Amino acid sequence: MDNTIAAMIVSDPSHTIEESFTAMTDDDALRSMHTSWTTSLDSTRGVERRLSDQRLQNDQLRLIGSAVHISGEGIAILTPAAEAIGPRVAFVNDGFCALYGRTREEIIGQPVSIFGIVERQEAIVSALLDHVFENRPFDGEVTATRKDGSEFELDIHLVPVDDAGQLTHWVGFLRDTTDTRNQIVRLRHEAMYDGLTNLPNRSLLFETLGKAVAAAREANTTVALLLMDLDRFKEVNDTFGHQFGDLLLQQVAFRLRNQLRSIDTVARLGGDEFAIVIPAASDSTALARTARNILNALEQPFVIEQQVLEVGASIGIATFPAHGDDARTLLRRADVAMYAAKQAQLGYAFHRDDVDRHTADQLSLIVEIRSALEHNQFEPYFQPKIHMRSGLMTRAEVLLRWNHPQRGLVSPALFVPVAERTGFIRTITEWLLERTMSQLRTWHDAGAPVHVAVNVSAKSLLDQAFPAKIDALLNRWQMDPRFLKIEITESSIMADPSHALAIMSMLQSLGVRLSVDDFGTGYSSLVHLRELPIDEIKIDQSFVKGMTTSDADAAIVRTVIDLAHNLGKQVCAEGVEDADTWRMLDSMGCDLAQGYFMSAPKSAPELMQWLLDSSWGLNSKPKA
After folding, report:
1. Of 17 and 77, which is predicted with more confidence?
2. What pLDDT is recorded for position 470?
3. Which DSSP category does 165 fall into?
4. HSE-CB of 528 using CA atoms within 13 angstroms
5. Domain spans of the chain, in order of start
6. Cis peptide leading into 301, omega within 30 of 0?
7. 120 to each of 123, 124, 157, 172, how far by Cα in Å?
8. How far is CA 204 from CA 129, 252, 320, 360, in A?
9. Residues 531-535: what's their mean pLDDT?
């Protein structure tokens, strides 16, 4: 019968043993036998289930035990605190032993002092024991020592375990948080310190200055803020590259630290701008002495990659409570004072209310220049340059005009110096060149082969990429380079003659014409004039305007014309405002003239109309 049942189960596994047995029993005897057998089977199954549950529990315990042993965290089981010394260690896993560099034998039976909390944190040890004796969980971050004496950051979590309200043991979880803590410290350092100089950055400066002001307010003392930027730093960057400039900034930071007390703070705000917080500051005399010491230290030559550099600095000084009662106000007023010091070439200056009012307008102008670039408020104007022998206009100088929505036409004398100081002049120059080339293309396509001259600043002249930018413009607008003249002031050339000569030579190789503007005001030597690859010399209007009334000015103009012609250069006289001046220049053999006697600067459409209407555009020179 058993074999038959087994066969049925094998043939049809969906049948249970009970179903198979019932299918073969029809009489009472067999039913009785079936009942007895199934009862025995149920009993056996109960035993099997209990054995299975126990095996599962044992497997789970072994699994938990393995997890405890191999856990990277330190795990310890401690006895209840049966004595004043507190609980003792009854078990530790491998992670705990690795954490402290100790064997299990060295640890078992030891009190919580085996956790190695450093002596300077006794208060935390006392708090831990208080929690243990009161059967309360404990969490804490401590500094601990290993067996070899090395310290590490430790996170401790102690949990009481009870059975029916009776404490049976403690379980401790211990984790090394040194890497995490170090990472947090690194991130904070990166957020609060300048990566190049390792000085505090702008964020930490505000925090430090705010605390210093709060302490000074409570102690009724003074805090000084010195704001400083370097002179000629952009020229260093433009000439030698940013890596060279970075090395210079690191040396500047080193010198600044050496000039200050341990309680003073020096920060780098960005670029070449630094700030110094002086708490418990003395009177203005002492602050002036500190500023002079800093300037003297920075005036000593810097040696970088065998290059000897000399850079100066300008410092603005504002103090609490005299000039402001919060960090932002002090920073703004120190910035105004620094600007005043730079403009007057004083080296350093204290904040003054009258300068503040004047400079606030200048600072507003900086913001408006940026907006003008974004909203296309600048416009090129063109002033004719008259060829004196023929009396015809074939050339024009491009001049920049700013159509301000509220101020109206803003004079270049007002905004160009601000643009040069802030670096916007380079962007403005590139914009002006682009517009000029576009206009040239339009005129040439219309049959008007006008030559144009564009002024560029020293920053553009010392830009290594400037010739490549000009070449790209000429190619983009398909312009013959002979129709473009670059005007460079004499002072820009003399700022760095050798570098200027290299850039000018590259421009000349492109076929672009070159002119020295404001000649006679920059103290250039004849040697430099002879070497420069220029086509034209422009006599400064300060000499031209006075030549009819001053024999000295007339002699200077005549000498420049003769000198230029002997060197094979053309001469253009600026500032021609009357017929007498025109006649004198003509008699001296001057080649070109420019000024209000012929025409004021005009927009492009106005210039074309002027050419149609004016005798300068159609006939020979006028009758004076």
Report:
1. 77
2. 95
3. T
4. 22
5. 2-67, 71-181, 194-351, 375-618
6. no
7. 8, 9, 20, 22
8. 39, 19, 18, 26
9. 87
Q: Over pLDDT 90: what percentage of the chain? A: 41
Contact 157, 135 (CB under 8 A): no
- Report whether 143 contacts 121 (CB < 8 A): yes
**375: three-class secondary structure by DSSP:** coil
Distance of CA 424 to the CA centre of its chain: 17
Cα-trace Rg, the chain: 44
Assign 363 a pLDDT band (cuts: 50, 70, 90).
low
pTM > 0.70: yes or no: no
| Angle formed at CA 318 by CA 316 and CA 324, multiple of 5 degrees | 145
Q: Which residues contact 482 (CB under 8 A, 6 or more apart)?
A: 451, 511, 512, 513
Residue 442 in tokens: 């339009």
Tokens of 512: 């672009």
Query: What mean pLDDT do residues 16-28 have?
Result: 42
Domains 71-181 and 375-618 share a fold: no
Report which of 296, 318, 300 is spatially closest to residue 309, judged by C-alpha positions: 300
Three-state secondary structure call for residue 25: coil
DSSP-derived secondary structure letter, 120: G
CB 541 within 8 A of CB 575: yes
Residue 558 scores a pLDDT above 70: yes
Decide: 522 and 489 in contact? Cβ < 8 Å.
yes
Residues 477, 440 contacting (CB under 8 angstroms): yes
User: Hey, what's the torsion of the CAs at 381, 387, 391, 395, to 10 degrees?
Assistant: -30
pLDDT one-digit tens code per residue, 145-174 = 999 999 999 999 999 988 777 888 899 999
pLDDT digits (tens, 9 = 90+) for 257-292: 988 888 999 999 888 999 999 998 878 888 988 998
Cα gap 335→295, rounded to integer Å: 17
The CATH superfamily of 194-351 is: Reverse transcriptase/Diguanylate cyclase domain (3.30.70.270)
- Is there a contact between 358 and 349 (Cβ–Cβ < 8 Å)? no
**Average pLDDT for the chain:** 82
> b or e along 428-446 (b: 16 or more beta carbons within 10 Å of the residue's beta carbon)?
bbbbbbebbbebbeebbee
Task: Tell me phi and psi for residue 92, to 5 degrees.
Answer: -140, 150
Q: Tell me which of 3.30.465.10, 3.40.605.10, 3.30.450.20, 1.10.287.130 is the CATH number of domain 71-181.
A: 3.30.450.20
Q: Domain spanning 375-618 has what CATH number?
A: 3.20.20.450
Count of helices and strands (H, E) across the chain: 25, 21
Pairwise CA distance, residues 512 & 483, whole Å = 8
**Beta-carbon contacts of residue 390 (< 8 Å; ≥ 6 apart):** 620, 621
* pLDDT number for residue 528: 63
- What is the rounded CA–CA span in Å between residue 258 and residue 250? 13
Q: Are strands 223-230 and 89-92 parallel, antiparallel or unpaired?
A: unpaired
Rounded mean pLDDT, 448-466: 85
CA distance 356 to 323: 11
Condensed to tens digits (0 to 9), the pLDDT of residues 45-59 reads 554 455 454 444 444
Where b means 16+ CB within 10 Å and e means fewer, 268-293 reads: bbeebbbbbbbbebeeeeebbebbee
